[in-house]
């Protein structure tokens, strides 16, 4: 007997919340610096190709699994494939989300600290060295761990309100504002002298600069940016009403994600080249470029504060989805307090996130495969576990899940289109697993 569950109040609320889950650090923070370190325009094209041909089918798949089971991730796989080991795929998602949050929330803490500093007028000033400011913040144990703690507290408080009154309400009001401020930033960036070199870097591809590692990063980024692979969207879509089209919702999320990645590139790279910075700056790229750009416009501190607050919100909407899969796994259909589980999860993530938080300060010399703890965790999650999770989900939905449920969910609230279904099925059966396996083998130096 199904347990009565909370639902999204509208299709728009679901799309904006799903887009919020996807459009966060992946599109705004991570995409510019990963693209900058891996060829710019050529990387962007490969990223779009992976997002459309692999990310979109995977997003549709997670939506189908979630609404088809009407359960959070761990229970969904167990219900759809009883008496099998497929329930462990949901457990992989919970573990993956936990690991992702240990470094994601560190960056969220940086954004929070920058937001507060900007509000009190301590970011933009005449003698500012923004690269040095970023180093000071990220290397300080006190500042970093305080930011991590406060950021997690905000997440926990919102999660305790649930889906409709917490996540959906926040996403519906503030996501559109992020787009507006991004467009303002792009316009200013493009009007800087020398900005066209940055536009060329981002939009004029040179595939000779692409390496096997860059392709692996592009695949990982397409998964990271859409929040697929760890079954976050399985949990989100489990709250979805049957009157909503999965296909159109997934397409909307993908289009919005690519658009924000485009805006991020057009906001960052023209400014990088105009201001004589290096596109290979790394994780600090956004935190150095944004203040530099806003410092050159009237009321720059005010606009920077507003943008950082919206960026903070976009970051939060993504971490909401990651924390939700953990919380729902322990509360959905169980007699456990959502509030208590949310706080316990937040405390556990804070403790586990301390090493990543200190990896640019006291633990900067602790290296794992020549990467600091922060970068090593990021690589493990984005380039190992996420593709692995997507591979298993592709196998599950094609070979293990009841195909009548798959078809019903695919066509529900949509016009009948056998061609679209067959194309999606073909991609999930052959293209998605083969591409993931090839990229994996190449990254291991086998091919």
TrEMBL record:
Protein name, UniProt field: Transporter
Ranges in coiled-coil conformation: none
Organism: Metabacillus malikii
InterPro entries xref list: Na/ntran_symport, SNS_sf, YocR/YhdH-like
Keywords: Membrane, Symport, Transmembrane, Transmembrane helix, Transport
Highest taxon listed in the record's lineage: Bacteria
Chief localization: membrane
PANTHER family xref list: TRANSPORTER (PTHR42948)
Residue intervals passing through the bilayer: 12-29, 41-65, 86-113, 143-161, 173-194, 214-240, 252-277, 302-329, 341-360, 380-399, 419-441
Membership in a protein family: Belongs to the sodium:neurotransmitter symporter (SNF) (TC 2.A.22) family.
Membrane topology: Multi-pass membrane protein
Pfam families in the cross-refs: SNF (PF00209)
Protein's cellular compartments: Membrane
